[in-house]
Amino acid sequence: MQELITVHSDPDFLLFVKPGGLLAVPGRGPEKQDCLVNRVKAIFPDCIEQPAVHRLDMATSGLMLLARNSVAHRRLSRQFETRQVHKEYLALLDGKVSEKQGRIELAFRLDPDNRPHQIYDPLQGKTGISHWKNLGCIDGRSLILFRPVTGRTHQLRLHASHPKGLGIPIAGDYLYGNAKDGDPMFLHASRLSFFHPKDGRRLEFSSLPPWLPEVEAEEPKAL
Q1: Which position among 34, 57, 113, 183 bears the catalytic label?
Q2: What is the distance between the alpha carbons of residues 139 and 118, in angstroms, rounded to a whole number?
Q3: 10 is catalytic
């Protein structure tokens, strides 16, 4: 069992680094009860029953915010709904991206015949918007900084892999790439900025992914 990393704790909220491969919230059935929320509630029994104010995919690692009381939960959830929360993710893509930065806006929806896959649908899909920046290459893979504006299901995974996005899947993504189920995925929620639910101070927290080597990435080169 991977040890949870506590980034911050106070009477109103908790911030942890969720390991990749761990559910964010409990699923259906006894085999899906091991998750970040249940582990945190075992450590902090004063937490409300449903403390999560946002979610990360099971395969995604990184910063996850939980409320300790109902007032904080309501105020933090409202910040996510009104896009007052600033989020950044680091991703290692399975190939080289030649462009340096850009904006992706694509509409996706669930494929009911192939759950949990999302498919491109400009008519019935919900629009996801992400800004991205190329931080260079590491061993032939592009290190991308994503700043999502919206929070759609699998948004960054789709924006990376789809031909109308960057056209290169995130390394380790078995849903939209060539990895196998259970392989570690190289997507990490690396920065989170929001207002304190009690006193309104703007707070900012960061976390580096465990897979990021301590080397400088190569500068991206135009083809």
Answers
A1: 57
A2: 29
A3: no
